[in-house]
Amino acid sequence: MAGEMEKLFALAGRIHVLLRREHNRIIDVEWMCADESYAREVIKLARAAGSIELLALAERTEAIHPLLPRPQNIEAPIPAKKEEKYVNSLR
Amino acid sequence: MKKLLASFMLLAVLFGAVSPSFAEEAAPAAEAVTATAEAAAAAAPAPVPNKGDTTWMMLSTLLVILMIVPGLSLFYGGLVRAKNMLSILSQVFGIFSLISVLWVIYGYSLAFGDGGSMNWLIGDTAKFFLAGMTGDSTAATFSDGVVIPEFTFVAFQLTFAAITTALIIGGFAERIKFGSLMVFSALWFTFSYLPIAHMVWAAGGYLFEKGALDFAGGTVVHINAGVAALVGAIVIGKRIGYGKEPMAPHNLPMTMIGASLLWVGWFGFNAGSNLEATGGAALAFLNTIVATAAAALSWMAAEKLLRGKASMLGIASGAVAGLVAITPAAGLVGPMGAIVLGLIVSPVCLWGVSGLKKSLGYDDSLDVFGIHALGGIVGAIGTGIFVSPALGGVGVNGYEMGAQVITQATGVAITIVWSGVVAFVCFKIVDMVMGLRVSEEAEREGLDTATHGERAYNM
C-alpha cells in the first residue's frame, strides 16, 4: 500500500510538471492523491490536453489510484487514509 | 581624576542642598564650594561615546536587520505554499523599507520625545525629520555619564519598529492585498507601535513610570504584533479551503534557515538592548542562548509525548518561542531563570498553535498569535517573577514579587487592548477604502503571480 502511494505520488508529480510546463495549469499533487473527485478532474484534464505522454500518465494514474474504481479489480479499493496534518494547523 | 573631583564637588553641593541649617552656618565655605563646583562643571567635557559601545550598538543594529530581511522572510516564506513564497518576501522587504523611512520622519520623535502633558502616552514633534540631530548628538544609556551616538540609537530602535510591523503579516499570509497591507502597516505603526513603545520605554511613559519591566520588547514587540496578527486573521477571514485541505509548508529547510538567522540576529535584539557592551549585555547574550535551547528541547519533548514524533518545525518553533519569552527578561533574570522560562513557554505555545487555534477556529496562517503573543505574555509575567534576586535575577529597586507581577500583567493587558483596538480600526478603515482581501481567483492562483507577476520557482 505504501509503495503504491509512492508510485501514485510520483505519477501525479509528473502530471503536475507536464501540465504546468506545457499548458500553464497548476494542480495540487497531494490533494490529487487524497481526493477522489479532484483526481478524476485532473485525469480528465490530462486526457484532454492532447499530449501522448499525459495521456499515458492519466491511464497509469487511474489504474493505481486507490480511490478510483477499477473494473479489473475484484476487491473493492481500499480508501487511502486522508492526511490530517496541515489541515487545521501548521504545526 | 577630573571625574573624581567633579563627583566630590557634586556631592558637596547636594549635601548643602539637603542640609539648609548646616549650609547657613557654613555659608561662606558653601558658596566657595558651589562656585568651585560650577566652575568644575563648566570645565567638565560633555560625555563622549565610547568607541566599543558605539561599535557594539551598530553591530547589534545589523544583527536585528539580519533577523528581519533574510531571517523572518525565510522563516515565514518556507511555511507558506510555493505559490505565495514571493508575496511573503515582498511583504517583509516592503514593510522594512516603509517603516525605516517613517521612523526617521516622525516615528523616533513620537516614540522617544518628551510629550509634555501627553508624555504618559506619546512623545513630541521636536525631532521630526531628525531635526537638530548631528553626528555629535548623543543618547543616554542605563549608566550615568555613558552615552552612545544618537544616530546609532535611532537606527537601533528603527529595526525594532520594523520587525514588529513585519511580524504581523504571518497572521493573514496568503490572502491580503499588498497595497492594503502597506497602508495598514503605516497606520498601525503610527497608532499602536509608537504609543506602546513610548509608554514602555520612554522616561515619563505610563508603563515606564509604573515600573513595568520590558528589557528588549516582550510587550512592545511580541504581544503588540501577535494581537494585531490575530485581529487581522479574524477580520480578513480564513483562507479558501482552510480546514478542508492540507496547507503544508512548502520548504521546511528554508524555515530552518530563517529560524537560525532569527536566533543569531536575536543576540543584537536582546544583548544590544543593554545599549552598552558591559556585563549586562553579556548576561542578556547568555540568556538568549540558554532560554532558546531549553524551549527547543521542551517543544521537542512535548511534541514527542503528545504526537509521537518530534518535528523539525516543532524544534524551530520552540526556539522562536524561547527567544520571544526571554526578550523582556534578557538582561534581568539569571541564566537558570532563563532556562525555566524556556521550559515553560513551549508547552504553552504548542497549546496555543494547536488546541486553542482549533477550538476558536481562526486561521492565523503562521501562528503569530500562538507563538509571539502567548510567548510574550509568558515572558512578561515570568520577568516579574525571575527578576527576583532570590531566584538569580538582578533585582530592581523596591522589588516585591506580587506587586511586580501585577505591574507586568497591567502592561500586558494595556498592550493587548490597545493593539487589538487599533488593529481592528485600522483594518476596517483600509477595508472600507481599498479592500483587504485579494479576489478568490487570485488566492487560488497564488499571490506570487497574481500580485507580483513572478514565480519563486521556475523549474
Structure report:
Chain A is mostly helical and 91 residues long. In chain A, 59% of the residues lie in helices and 0% in strands. The longest helix of chain B has 34 residues. Chain B is built from 17 helices and 2 strands. At the A-B interface, helix 2 of A face helix 12 and helix 13 of B.
Main sheet makeup of chain A: none
- What fraction strand of chain A? under 5%
Q: Tell me the distance between the termini of chain A.
A: 27 Å
- Number of E-state strands of chain A: 0
Total of DSSP H or I helical runs spanning 4+ residues of chain B: 17
What is the spatial order of strands in the main beta sheet of chain B? Answer: 1-2
- Radius of gyration of chain B using CA atoms only: 24 Å
What proportion of the residues of chain B is helical, as a percent range? 55-70%
Briefly note the structural class of the backbone of chain B. mainly alpha
**Proportion in β-strands of chain B:** under 5%
What are the key terms here?
A: mainly alpha, 4 helices, 0% strand, globular, B: 459 residues, mainly alpha
Concise structural overview:
The complex is a heterodimer of chains A (91) and B (459). With 91 residues, chain A is mostly helical.
Topology:
The complex is a heterodimer of chains A (91) and B (459).
Chain A: H1 2-23, H2 29-34, H3 36-48, H4 52-64
Helix pairs in contact in A: 1-4, 3-4
Chain B: H1 2-18, H2 20-25, H3 27-43, H4 51-79, H5 85-112, E1 138-140, E2 147-149, H6 150-167, H7 178-201, H8 206-210, H9 218-236, H10 252-271, H11 279-307, H12 312-326, H13 335-360, H14 368-386, H15 401-434, H16 440-445, H17 447-452
